[in-house]
Amino acid sequence: MNKWQRSRFQPNLPLGENGERVTASKAHRELSKNAAKEGMVLLKNKQNVLPLKKGTKVALFGKGSIDYVKGGGGSGDVTVEYIINLYEGMKALKGHVNVFEELSDFYLENVKSQYEQGAIPGMTVEPVVPEDLLKKASAFTDTAIITICRFSGEGWDRKSSLDTKDKIVLPYEDPLIKRSEEIFERGDFYLTKTETAMVNTVKEHFSKVIVVMNVGGMVDTSWFVDDDSIQSVLMAWQGGMEGGLAAAELLCGMGNPSGKLSDTFAKRLEDYPSTYNFHDSVDYVEYTDDIYVGYRYFETIPGAAEKVNYPFGFGLSYSSFQWNVVSAEEQNGVIQVKVSVTNTGSLEGKEVIQIYVGAPQGLLGKPAKSLVAFQKTRQLKAGETQMLSLEFTVDSMASYDDLGKIQKSAYVLEAGDYLIYVGTSVRNVEKLSFVYNVPQNIVVKQLSEKLVPTSLKERMLADGSFEPLPQREAHNPNECAFEKITDWQAEGYTPEGRIRKSYQLWREPFKKGCHTFYEVAEGKVTVEEFLAQMTDEEVAHLLGGQPNTGVANTFGLGNMPEYGVPNIMTADGPAGLRIAPECGVKTTAWPCATLLACTWNRDIVYAVGEAGAKEVKENNIAIWLTPAVNIHRSPLCGRNFEYYSEDPFLTGKLAAAMVEGIQSQHIGATVKHFALNNKETNRKNSDSRVSERAAREIYLKGFEIIVKEANPWCIMSSYNIINGHRASENRELLEDILRGEWGWNGMVTTDWWTYAEHYKEVKAGNDLKMGRGYPERLLEAKALGLITREDMDVCAKRILELILKVD
Length: 807
Fold this sequence. Notes:
Blueprint: H1 5-9, H2 26-39, E1 41-45, E2 56-61, H3 86-92, E3 97-99, H4 101-116, H5 131-140, E4 143-149, H6 174-183, H7 193-205, E5 208-214, E6 232-235, H8 243-251, E7 265-266, H9 275-278, E8 284-286, H10 295-298, E9 308-310, E10 321-331, E11 334-343, E12 352-358, E13 370-376, E14 385-393, E15 399-401, E16 410-413, E17 416-423, E18 429-438, E19 442-446, E20 458-460, E21 466-468, H11 487-490, H12 517-521, H13 527-532, H14 536-542, E22 556-560, E23 565-571, H15 593-598, H16 602-618, E24 623-624, H17 648-663, E25 668-674, E26 687-689, H18 692-699, H19 701-710, E27 714-717, E28 721-722, E29 725-726, H20 731-741, E30 747-749, H21 758-764, H22 775-783, H23 789-805
Parallel strand pairs: 2-3, 2-4, 4-5, 5-6, 8-26, 23-24, 24-25, 25-27, 26-28, 27-30
Antiparallel strand pairs: 1-6, 7-9, 10-11, 11-14, 12-13, 12-17, 15-16, 16-19, 17-18, 20-21, 22-23, 28-29
């Protein structure tokens, strides 16, 4: 196949063997199911109620047994051929368990009726089970399975009891927010009154109660953690199109849970330090919790440890494991820990070994523990042992000094003992006798001041107190040298079609006398020489999104046929290739990112990326807008299902595997949303106010790991403002840190329809404006001396270099 032949002529050639399509193939659906099983977390299993023995009779309670949520909304939605809920999953096991059908029929009819009235999965009301049906169910069996489901989506956040202010929403978001507030009286973190009543009724009538949580992120666990009448709980997450079958198989012992939590589950929503100011204002979020996010808060701040129900890294198995540290040593700046893991149970299973470092408090203050390494065993048979070797660098234990307490704008290792903890969660660890001592302060890396706050007045310290922060002069993010486009003028508009004048097809397929882009691909002409022949208007045209072709709905880039530049398409999304339903193409819905993070397994995340990229390629799309890797700062962020974890190291390592899997197929991964996109309410005008240290150690760290380990082709800047500067206009973020400090040379695209000014984005190193650009405004800015042709060429060069990578 010739260069860009697929992109230009839409052959839609199948990539499978024997001319078969890989999109939504049986192999991909099976991988989706297996990935879901790998990341589901067994939170509780008293009296070994699970796995269910063959022939067990069960009654399925909760509309969630039918009303299954495969994933979140917005860019994370996927058009699929089918979705398997828990009831269908149980029935697919062909008699392994006997389901009380009359009860399931009741829920089926109820959910069907709610759907017909306009409800969507996860946004339905829990019905009351008739008394006679309840009696029949309890006569049929002593075992009940309760399913609780939740939905969230792009563009809106979850509600809390502290959220009393009006939200700024777009018209398409308003119905979902209103519906959520109608259904969930205290916010969807907690059970509704009808769900609570249903749970209590089930506990009264059944001696064995199992709970399945079909959710996308952190939820209340206080109602079952210490309740002996609920013996087992499976955190099944949003498991993709096969998620109901995956959960059913695990419940029935066809597989062994091996997932570990990628977040801390606190006793109350109000126990997360981010809750109190999350909805303080629609205009900003103050990251006063600083580096103490997730377990870094709960394991460090005095009095916080007792607020945890399930700690970070926690997860049970049907089997049992014994592990032993064989050795720990440091050589050439690398600490290596060897751990022997043995399956001491009767069933095959996997275990995850985790290593945390406890740095000395020193002058900077540190989290009590920070994850620095992890590894999952292979599937171990009963009695089998595996030796794991885990490594991390000494430099990775350094902290960033943004105020100059040791060395300003530098990563430093403060003098003292660095303790090493090995175990299977942040709580279930043993402190090693091996201690790494730093005799005197060491500057690991000297940087320069970036992203300094302009409005964040204080931040949390390790003892729970707060210290004041110096401020830079505030910046106006809406500043523009000429009349600014209003927000509503920027919202949702498609790219303009660029007209090429008539030409004789067989004599002048390209612009007369030009060097074509094919010559660049063949190495005959440099990108710089290619760009030099273009007019200012032509280069400005390259810097914006291009019209859709084929099944694409998120637009393209390139599109200059007179020069031989193809129109390369993009596609959402984090849970699978997103193609609009009207196209008639069904794809594979993969488990949500939070579930993938709970696998703690780079291999299976790589496999999902590889398979998903094949579907992207087969449908003539070249750039996949995934993975999304923002930190789970708060349970309230409506988009947490798209993101991996509260921990940047776990996020970075697993998302890097996703990028590697995607790009193994010569499809461009787009890591998003860069950066600090941890709230959806008023996301295009909300200011994320954060210290430089927290930005570098928590919110940028995952991106840094991905960039340095996987070299993604593309990064998407975020909608939000960061310390007074819009992310897509922030040169310190995009040029100084991303390209300067990290050495990355890929293309940056905006998120779709930002409220930023195009010429300021170009000046900041944001190469491509999506979904459309404003070439006329770029030319006006150039005429005023606000940008130069060289500025535009730099961005255009990176866009063209990305297109050259497409096969």
